[in-house]
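User: Batch of two.

Assistant: Item 1 of 2:
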Amino acid sequence: MLAERLKLLNPAIKVLYMSGYSGISITHQGLVDPGVDYVRNPLTALSLAGKVREVLSRVGTCGTILVVDDEPGIRQLFEQLPTGEGYEVLTATNGAEALEIVRQRHLDLVFTDLVMPESEGIETIRAIRIEQPNLKIIAASGAFEGQFLQAAALLGACATLLKPIGGDQLLSMVRRVHSMTPLPTA
C-alpha cells in the first residue's frame, strides 16, 4: 500500500484516506485500520481543507526510541532532542533495564552507549538481536577512542557514532536509521 511505503520513507508523514464509501464500510472490509484519518466523497474544498488542517495540527509521535546510557546528562540531552522532533523517548541506565523495556514495549529504535556498568552495550546489542532481530540500533561510544564501535556494527548495530555527539549529528542519525528499510529476518 502506498501509505505504508511512504511511512517507511518518512515515519512522521501524515496520511488522510479518501473514498466514496463510508469509513465503517472500508474498515469492515479491511481496507484501512480503525482510527485512521478518513474523509468521505463527495466533499467540498472547505471540508477537505478543514480535515487536512485537523490532521496536520494533531500532535503525535513519529516513533519510539529507547536511549540507554549510564550518564544522566547524556540521557537527558538525548531524551530532549528527539522528543522535540516528535519521537517518544524512553530511557534506561544499563543494558539490563533496556532489555526489560525491549520485552515490554514496541520500539522503533534503540540508541545505546557501549561502555556501561552492569551490562555493556555490546552484550545488550547481542541480546536485542536474539529477541528482536529487526529492531534498529544505533551504538555510541567515546571510550577507548571508539574502538568498540566496529564490534557493535558487526553484532548488528545499524549505525555507530563516536562521542562526543552534537545535537544535529544525533538527530540526523536518528532520522536516517529510523527511515531505513526494516532489517531482514534471519
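Item 2 of 2:
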Amino acid sequence: MKFAAIDIGSNAIRLLFSNVSEVEGQVHFKKSSLIRVPLRLGDDAFVNKNISEAKIEKLIKTLTAFKLLIDVNEPLAFRACATSAMREADNGAEIIELIKHQTGIQIEIIDGKTEADLVFSNRSDENLENSVPYLYIDVGGGSTELTLLYNSEVIAAKSFNIGTIRILHKQITEHKWNDLDKWINLHTKGIKDIVAIGSGGNINKINKLAKKKLVKPLSIDQLVEINAILSRYSFEERISILGLNPDRADVIVPAAKIYIHIMKTANIQNIIVPQIGVADGIVHQLYDEYINR
C-alpha cells in the first residue's frame, strides 16, 4: 500500500510517498521518497501578513509538479495540509481557492493542535517504554508543538507561536517565552526523568552533525555543544564548511535554541530523534482511515 502527503510549512514544502506493509500483525511504514522545496512562506506571512504574488506563483508551480508525481505514483490516498504561515496570511483562504482551481489539490489549513496531533500520530511511542514520560517537541518555522505523554496517555498538548523564522525576524517577545515556560512547568510538575522526542528538519540535521544513530538519544550537553559550534560559524561557513543548505544554515541555530530552552525548562537530559514530521503523521492517519473505512 502506498500513501502520499503534502506538508506546506513556513520554511519548506514537502511531498512524502510512504509504503505501508502488514507483516504478521505488525504495520510497517517505509518512506519511499521525500521531495522538499524551500519556499519560505513564513518570510512573507509573519512579516507582511500576506503571501506575495511571487511566492504564490512558486507555490502553485511546486504543487502542480507534486500533483503530477502523485498521479504517476498512484497512491491509495493523499492529503495536503498547511501550517502556521498559511494560517496567519491574510490571503491564505484566497490562495487555497486558487490552488484548488489550478492544480486540483484541496489544501487543509490546520490549527496548532491538529499539527501536534499529526506529529504525535506517528506512533513512535510504540517502541518506547510505557513507564517513561515523553515530551514530543516539533519545531517549525512558525510554531512549536509540544505533546506530553505519560503512562501511554496524552497528558497535555499545545502549540506556541515560537518558530525559527519568527526568531530570525525578531518576532518572539519575552511574553511568548514566559507562556511557554509556564505551560511546561505546569504540566511537568512532579514528573521526573522526562525524555524528549524531537521532530523537524533542524533536529534531524543536528542529530546527523552529532553523528548519532537514529533513535539513539542525544544528550542536552551534546546539543548545547553542537549549538555552540554552529553559532561560532557564520552563515556562509555553515554552508561551505558544514555542508548545510542555505535554507537550513540560517534557521538551524534558532532551532537549537528552542530545543535547548524547552529541555532545560523541563529538566530533560536526552532527546530521541526518530525523523518524523507532519507528513509522516498524515500518512499514518490516511492508513488508519483506509483500513477502518
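The CA atoms of residues 15 and 35 lie 5 Å apart.
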